[in-house]
């Protein structure tokens, strides 16, 4: 199987890569069939000399069945040859079963806490309304008692005045 891949060159800590077409069984820096480009990671990303490709040669090798590696596929996609999709597994970073259980338990506790807060607020509002009604009823009762108290001495005074008048009429 043919691969279009990188072959490392350059000094220690100064990498320089050749983009080559090679048999998949040959070593990374070993035998290759054709050199089809270069990659210099030390240059700035917007530098034109960072990646150089022989487009026609690469297209010919792809037509013959050569498969580009991930990194080379990125370079080719940037040049408009083929397409590159992110190769990572999107589910790899998802939480496991235990973590999902903990998340659902946390969410349930949070919902219960909020429901308890709402219930407590409703109970407090109902208690405040009941207290207000009780205070209003007590105020009405006090007003009624005060009215009765004010009416009672007037009622007591009225018969007292009437009684001596009645006595005067009987004596006379």
Automatic annotation (TrEMBL):
<feature type="region of interest" description="Disordered">
    <location>
        <begin position="81"/>
        <end position="172"/>
    </location>
</feature>
<dbReference type="InterPro" id="IPR023803">
    <property type="entry name" value="Ribosomal_bS16_dom_sf"/>
</dbReference>
<feature type="compositionally biased region" description="Basic and acidic residues">
    <location>
        <begin position="98"/>
        <end position="122"/>
    </location>
</feature>
<feature type="compositionally biased region" description="Low complexity">
    <location>
        <begin position="140"/>
        <end position="172"/>
    </location>
</feature>
<dbReference type="GO" id="GO:0005737">
    <property type="term" value="C:cytoplasm"/>
</dbReference>
<dbReference type="InterPro" id="IPR000307">
    <property type="entry name" value="Ribosomal_bS16"/>
</dbReference>
<protein>
    <recommendedName>
        <fullName>Small ribosomal subunit protein bS16</fullName>
    </recommendedName>
</protein>
<dbReference type="GO" id="GO:0015935">
    <property type="term" value="C:small ribosomal subunit"/>
</dbReference>
<keyword id="KW-0687">Ribonucleoprotein</keyword>
<dbReference type="Pfam" id="PF00886">
    <property type="entry name" value="Ribosomal_S16"/>
</dbReference>
<comment type="similarity">
    <text>Belongs to the bacterial ribosomal protein bS16 family.</text>
</comment>
<keyword id="KW-0689">Ribosomal protein</keyword>
<dbReference type="GO" id="GO:0003735">
    <property type="term" value="F:structural constituent of ribosome"/>
</dbReference>
<dbReference type="GO" id="GO:0006412">
    <property type="term" value="P:translation"/>
</dbReference>
<dbReference type="InterPro" id="IPR020592">
    <property type="entry name" value="Ribosomal_bS16_CS"/>
</dbReference>
């Amino acid at each position: 199987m043919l691969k279009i891949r990188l072959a490392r060159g350059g000094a220690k800590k100064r990498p320089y890569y050749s983009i080559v077409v090679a048999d998949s069984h040959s070593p990374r820096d070993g035998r290759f069939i054709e050199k089809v480009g270069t990659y210099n990671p030390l240059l700035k990303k917007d530098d034109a000399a960072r990646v150089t490709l022989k487009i026609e040669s690469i297209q010919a090798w792809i037509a013959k069945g050569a498969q580009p590696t991930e990194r080379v596929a990125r370079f080719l996609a940037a040049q408009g040859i083929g397409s590159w999709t992110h190769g990572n597994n999107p589910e790899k970073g998802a939480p496991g079963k235990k973590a999902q259980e903990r998340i659902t338990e946390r969410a349930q506790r949070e919902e219960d806490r909020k429901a308890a807060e709402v219930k407590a607020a409703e109970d407090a509002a109902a208690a405040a309304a009941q207290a207000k009604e009780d205070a209003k009823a007590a105020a009405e009762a006090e007003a009624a008692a005060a009215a009765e108290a004010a009416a009672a001495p007037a009622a007591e005074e009225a018969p007292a005045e009437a009684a001596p008048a009645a006595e005067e009429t009987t004596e006379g």
